[in-house]
């Protein structure tokens, strides 16, 4: 009966109901006129008596539509709460049928979109959680919103990091990682002891963005140890090829000129001997300098530590390379270093800073006393380093300069580690590079 009524338009239902009510009112008024003399009173009484019956039928006529509207209200509330599992049923046609069909189509579309979003979120979460790169999302209150599996292993002993204060987490992190964050920007740093083969090299990347109108920070820590070891093998192969090429380029003309000199002696043409001998000397000295530069890196002696006042050391350094200085001036600030080795390392770093495109006045050396270490920062305002260069900069013989040897930064790393310290490279906020050496006090 209900389904049959839904198929009849409401206008026809109301017309039939009004016609039936008018007939019933007329018949009742005619019947009442036998007892009531005035016709208008009889009509009024008839209408009053039939009014409850009319109200009942009108309510029944509107009941399906009212139920539909309540169902629409409930389903819209469910959509607002993110629940798209509801649908409506209306067997009638007309405008209400079209409304129900559109509403159900909207629910199906929202449900499909929600399912697709859930699947993509699951895929993204799986990728984020299983990537070897440690990822941390930090909110404006410096609380960790997200930490993947790699971040838990690196910073939380495998425990969940969400909800923890990021600054408190850094306090228990390795010193090199904490110092890298204090310097700001992207960079590379070393954790562990190189002498015991327990050394890990990391690249730090930090990005600011807005999420739900609030500024968040995404922190990425990528371990480069295995990659750098592989690249070191490739680099050494390249070095062997370069050395072999350089030796052949020098030894071949030396051998040829030596043979020619012997022939000149045999023929008595002594006047041409000085030119041949001069060329042999020039090639031999070039080869000597080439081998000496490479052997200096390969045969780095153990540092001979001695107490040296920092102001005296910095004054000697400034006599060779200009730079701005920010650090202690008191002779009581004592370092235990190998003066020649550290001077060589810092000269290379300061020359690199001057060649970076930085203004000479922006090249600076900063010295700070830490609880158990000295930190030396060589600063510039040049072009900095992109991620690829940062990842390879400390490799021996890697250079972006056309005529560079690729030994400056690698030599500084060897010297810092031989002193029991470490080196880190970080791009500075506002442009430029910071090369930081941390040495035991």
UniProtKB/TrEMBL annotation:
Q: Does the keyword Phosphoprotein apply?
A: yes
- GO molecular function term, any single one: phosphorelay response regulator activity
Instruction: State the Gene3D superfamilies in the record.
Output: 1.10.287.130, Histidine kinase-like ATPase, C-terminal domain, PAS domain
Signal peptide residues are none
Q: What is its EC number?
A: 2.7.13.3
Q: Which reaction does it catalyse?
A: ATP + protein L-histidine = ADP + protein N-phospho-L-histidine
- Is the keyword Membrane assigned to this protein? yes
Report the domain of life of the source organism.
Answer: Bacteria
List, in alphabetical order, the GO biological process terms annotated in this UniProt record. osmosensory signaling via phosphorelay pathway
The family database entries (CDD domains) matched by this protein are listed as: HATPase, HisKA
| Listed transmembrane segments | 12-33, 39-58
- Which residue numbers delimit the Histidine kinase domain? 242-441
Q: What keyword terms does UniProt attach to this protein?
A: ATP-binding, Kinase, Membrane, Nucleotide-binding, Phosphoprotein, Transferase, Transmembrane, Transmembrane helix
- One Pfam annotation reads HATPase_c
* PANTHER family on file: OSMOLARITY TWO-COMPONENT SYSTEM PROTEIN SSK1, TWO-COMPONENT HISTIDINE KINASE
From the Swiss-Prot or TrEMBL record, give the protein name.
Answer: histidine kinase
Look up and give the organism this protein is from.
Answer: Pseudoluteimonas lycopersici
């Amino acid at each position: 009966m209900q389904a049959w009524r839904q198929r009849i338009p409401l206008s026809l239902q109301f017309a039939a109901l009004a016609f039936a009510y008018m007939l019933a009112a007329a018949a009742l008024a005619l019947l009442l006129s036998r007892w009531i003399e005035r016709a208008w009173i009889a009509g009024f009484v008839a209408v009053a008596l039939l009014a409850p019956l009319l109200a009942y039928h009108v309510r029944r006529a509107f009941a399906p539509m009212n139920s539909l509207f309540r169902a629409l209200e409930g389903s819209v509330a469910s959509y607002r709460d993110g629940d798209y599992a509801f649908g409506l049923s209306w067997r009638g046609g007309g405008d209400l049928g079209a409304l129900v069909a559109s509403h159900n189509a909207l629910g199906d579309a929202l449900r499909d979109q929600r399912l697709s979003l859930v699947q993509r979120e699951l895929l993204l979460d799986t990728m984020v959680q299983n990537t070897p790169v440690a990822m941390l999302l930090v909110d404006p209150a410096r609380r960790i919103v997200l930490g993947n599996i790699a971040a838990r292993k690196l910073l939380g002993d495998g425990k969940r990091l969400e909800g923890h204060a990021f600054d408190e987490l850094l306090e228990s992190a390795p010193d090199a990682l904490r110092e890298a964050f204090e310097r700001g920007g992207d960079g590379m740093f070393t954790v562990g002891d190189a002498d015991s083969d327990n050394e890990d090299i990391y690249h730090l990347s930090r990005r600011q963005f807005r999420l739900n109108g609030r500024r968040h920070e995404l922190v990425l820590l990528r371990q480069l140890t295995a990659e750098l070891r592989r690249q070191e093998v490739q680099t050494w192969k390249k070095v062997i090829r370069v050395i072999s090429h350089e030796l052949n380029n020098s030894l071949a003309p030396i051998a040829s000129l030596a043979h020619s000199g012997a022939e000149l002696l045999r023929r008595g043409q002594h006047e041409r001997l000085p030119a041949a001998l001069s060329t042999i000397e020039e090639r031999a000295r070039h080869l000597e300098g080439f081998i000496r530069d490479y052997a200096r890196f390969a045969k780095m002696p153990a540092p001979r530590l001695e107490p040296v006042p920092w102001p005296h050391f910095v004054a000697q350094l400034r006599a060779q390379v200009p730079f701005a200085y920010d650090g202690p001036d008191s002779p009581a600030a004592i370092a235990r270093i190998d003066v020649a080795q550290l001077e060589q390392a810092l000269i290379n770093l300061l020359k690199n800073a001057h060649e970076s495109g930085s203004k000479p006045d922006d090249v600076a050396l900063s010295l700070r006393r830490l609880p158990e270490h000295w930190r030396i920062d060589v600063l510039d305002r040049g072009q900095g380093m992109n991620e690829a260069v940062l990842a390879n900069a400390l490799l021996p013989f890697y250079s972006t300069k056309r005529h560079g040897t690729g030994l400056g930064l690698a030599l500084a790393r060897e010297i810092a580690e031989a002193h029991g310290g470490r080196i880190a490279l970080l791009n500075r906020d506002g442009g430029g590079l910071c090369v930081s050496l941390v040495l035991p006090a």
